[in-house]
């Protein structure tokens, strides 16, 4: 499922159209020329040394995407003998069991969604996007409760046996406060319209599903996938057509804004879950935020995710999806830490300036989550991936 908010807002400086961004994968070398090439006039050793030096210089600039685990750059580094033995044993034992269990969980939840949506037409808004997230009664209750439970069970199957969560309860109101103070506190405890999270891995989706079961932004083709398509409609995903021009782009931005306003005003509406960075990092950095999540002027709930590791990092930074899944499933225990920040209520200045609102939330998340602010983005990630493909293709 595509979870990145694909530039739903207009440019911070103008309102010209955008082209939706494509996903990042190991195939970037097919569309971008490798930036690191050896000079044919140099000897092989000199060329490799020069290329390695250039790569090291690039890693300083693109530090947000560097893998520092045992598996090395792009998960293709040389492994010590002990790691090879552990990986081999897990490949023939743990891997098959986890794949079978994960597929079974997915199928069970699909059946639950199928039964709960029988004879119940989907909600269809002005944008013609279908969803079952606005369905009420026992059907919605079963979908949400089973979805949250099975998402957590899926994480357990993937090796996340316990998740360390920390947060502050802001719903407490001191009984000794005056009536006027209680009114002020009640206004300050309005329901957030969106959950804002840093983006480290596709695993982020499973955690947020298990925690709050929100709606996501997804590629329109996801709605047509077997099993996953129906589940995405039950989540209330907002679909974006990546190949379309600005007219559809603006339409999706409007849908997201309306969804955030709706969630803010009604407790029965699904909350939007947005990753304003627009791509994944190695988990130590926080990229600049897109402003699409802040156009609704509604309060947001910031959440910071971390994935501590000893051998393989669950972060999806500079590694292909296939390698990431295999290594993740072969690692017996994985770890996740979650820090829920207080609901962020925008000031009048922030409501009038979405860019200011987004930047202040970002600074707060970086400070509370001990993250490093970085000024790179998805474009730089593509450049870095292309460079890695060019470098490793020569070695």
TrEMBL record:
Asked if Protein biosynthesis is a keyword of the record, the answer is no
Q: Which GO terms describe its biological process?
A: phospholipid biosynthetic process
Q: What Gene Ontology molecular-function terms does this entry list?
A: lysophosphatidylethanolamine acyltransferase activity; O-acyltransferase activity
Location in the cell: Membrane
Query: What pathway or pathways are given for this protein in its record?
Result: Lipid metabolism
The protein's UniProt keywords, in alphabetical order, are:
Acyltransferase, Lipid biosynthesis, Lipid metabolism, Membrane, Phospholipid biosynthesis, Phospholipid metabolism, Transferase, Transmembrane, Transmembrane helix
Spans annotated as Disordered: 1-25
Residues of the Phospholipid/glycerol acyltransferase domain: 193-308
Ranges of Basic and acidic residues composition bias in the record? 1-14
Q: Which residues form the signal peptide?
A: none
User: Which coarse location class describes where this protein primarily resides?
Assistant: membrane
Q: Where does it sit, as one GO cellular component term?
A: endoplasmic reticulum
Cross-referenced CDD domains, in alphabetical order? LPLAT_LPCAT1-like
What Pfam families does the database record attribute to this sequence? Acyltransferase
- The record lists the membrane-crossing segments as 85-112, 149-164
InterPro entries, sorted: LPCAT1-like (IPR045252), Plipid/glycerol_acylTrfase (IPR002123)
- Tell me yes or no: is Lipid metabolism among this UniProt entry's keywords: yes
- Family annotation (PANTHER family): LYSOPHOSPHOLIPID ACYLTRANSFERASE LPEAT1, PHOSPHOLIPID ACYLTRANSFERASE
Q: What's the family?
A: Belongs to the 1-acyl-sn-glycerol-3-phosphate acyltransferase family.
Record's protein name: Phospholipid/glycerol acyltransferase domain-containing protein
């Amino acid at each position: 499922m595509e979870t990145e908010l694909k530039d739903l807002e207009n440019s911070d400086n103008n309102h010209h159209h955008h082209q939706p961004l494509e996903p990042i994968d190991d195939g970037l070398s097919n569309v971008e020329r490798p930036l690191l090439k050896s000079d044919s006039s140099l000897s092989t050793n000199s060329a490799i040394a020069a290329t390695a030096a250039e790569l090291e210089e690039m890693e300083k600039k693109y530090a947000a995407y560097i893998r520092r685990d045992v598996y090395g750059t792009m998960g293709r580094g040389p492994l010590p003998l002990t790691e090879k033995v552990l990986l081999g044993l897990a490949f023939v034992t743990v891997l098959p069991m986890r794949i079978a269990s994960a597929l079974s969980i997915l199928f069970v939840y699909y059946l639950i969604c199928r039964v709960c949506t029988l004879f119940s037409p989907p909600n269809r808004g002005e944008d013609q996007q279908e969803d079952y997230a606005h369905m009420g009664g026992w059907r919605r209750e079963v979908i949400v409760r089973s979805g949250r439970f099975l998402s957590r069970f899926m994480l357990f199957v993937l090796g996340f046996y316990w998740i360390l969560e920390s947060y502050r309860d802001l719903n407490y109101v001191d009984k000794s406060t005056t009536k006027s103070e209680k009114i002020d506190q009640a206004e300050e405890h309005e329901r957030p319209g969106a959950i804002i999270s840093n983006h480290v891995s596709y695993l982020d989706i499973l955690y947020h599903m298990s925690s709050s079961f929100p709606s996501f932004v997804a590629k329109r083709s996801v709605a047509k996938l077997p099993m996953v398509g129906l589940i995405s409609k039950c989540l209330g995903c907002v679909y974006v057509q990546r190949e379309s021009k600005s007219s559809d782009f603006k339409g999706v931005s409007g849908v997201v804004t309306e969804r955030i306003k709706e969630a803010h005003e009604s407790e029965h509406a699904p909350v939007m879950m947005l990753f304003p960075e627009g791509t994944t990092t190695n988990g130590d950095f926080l990229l600049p935020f897109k402003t699409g999540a802040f156009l609704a002027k509604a309060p947001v709930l910031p959440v910071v995710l971390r994935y501590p590791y000893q051998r393989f990092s669950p972060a999806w930074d500079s590694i292909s999806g296939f390698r990431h899944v295999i290594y993740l499933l072969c690692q017996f225990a994985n770890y996740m830490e979650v820090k829920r920040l207080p609901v962020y209520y925008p000031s009048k200045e922030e409501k009038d300036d979405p860019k200011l609102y987004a930047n202040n939330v970002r600074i707060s998340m970086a400070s509370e989550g001990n993250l490093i602010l970085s000024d790179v983005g998805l474009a730089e990630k593509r450049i870095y991936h292309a460079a890695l493909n060019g470098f490793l293709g020569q070695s």
